[in-house]
Automatic annotation (TrEMBL):
The EC number(s) this enzyme carries: 2.4.2.44
InterPro entries per UniProt: MTAP (IPR010044), Nucleoside_phosphorylase_d (IPR000845), Nucleoside_phosphorylase_sf (IPR035994)
Assembly notes: Homotrimer.
Species: Phycicoccus endophyticus
Protein name per its UniProtKB record: Probable S-methyl-5'-thioinosine phosphorylase
Biological role stated in the UniProt entry: Catalyzes the reversible phosphorylation of S-methyl-5'-thioinosine (MTI) to hypoxanthine and 5-methylthioribose-1-phosphate. Involved in the breakdown of S-methyl-5'-thioadenosine (MTA), a major by-product of polyamine biosynthesis. Catabolism of (MTA) occurs via deamination to MTI and phosphorolysis to hypoxanthine.
Amino acid sequence: MTAPPLAVVAGTGFYDLEALQDRSEQTVETRWGPARVTHGRWHGLPVVFLTRHGPGHTLPPHLVNYRANIRALADLGCTDVLAVNVTGSIDPDLAPGDLLCLDDFLDLTRQRPLTFFDGSGPQGVVHVDVSTPYHPELRRELLEAAAALGQPMRDGGVYAAFEGPRFETAAEIRLARLAGADVAGMTGVPEVTLAHEAGLRYAAVSLVVNPATGVGEGTEPITMSEIEAVLTRSREAVVAVLDELVHTRATFAEEDAG
Ligand SMILES: CSC[C@H]1O[C@H](OP(=O)(O)O)[C@H](O)[C@@H]1O
Ligand code: HPA
């Protein structure tokens, strides 16, 4: 039996997965609009890659069509989604380049379409459970992949999802800190909750690319050049963890087949 494709969804700085072989592009039409994906094989396993801001990063976080993206992945038969979100660190013990395997989120977004269940579908009104937002089995795979590479990855972290596209004020970051947030981003929600609604297993790696506003030494403005510099030196670490995870899956698949 062919394994369902593994979905990889990434954003800023992650516009391609160079390791993919036998590549093909597809625009998947969904009830919520089109989604652009790249199909390929990674260590022989089928993978669907989706860059959430679109090729060339044309969509700001509040205008990403999260519903089309997640619906497309489900329609393509994916069951597992590995997401990458770059973030600003709220926890002062975190530094640019650090990786976290998220285990919870705070939704501080304001104006996004949040749900597939708007009451008009056959299911009517649905309230999904998100007491375990990030799938424990996928989290374990990510953490084991990082450990196998000797790549530090914090086990757990609370992602505060802000509306964007502006960065936060220092007061907003202090508020999120009081509520237990470790990192700030703009795209993790509603991606994670839509994945739940679609019945997909979802886990996310967060790569810290800057101290969030007001965190750390002083009150330096956040610049894209500092973020790009961190991405240039740390992007490969994230890809290496995903590569190790897929390689491990491929090894198990071969053993099962043999
Ligand atoms: C370039 S900083 C703001 C930008 O970075 C984060 O991207 P993503 O979550 O797609 O990795 C943040 O959410 C914003 O989209
Ligand atoms: O500081 C930040 N805030 C929100 N989203 C982000 N994405 C990267 N850095 C940040």
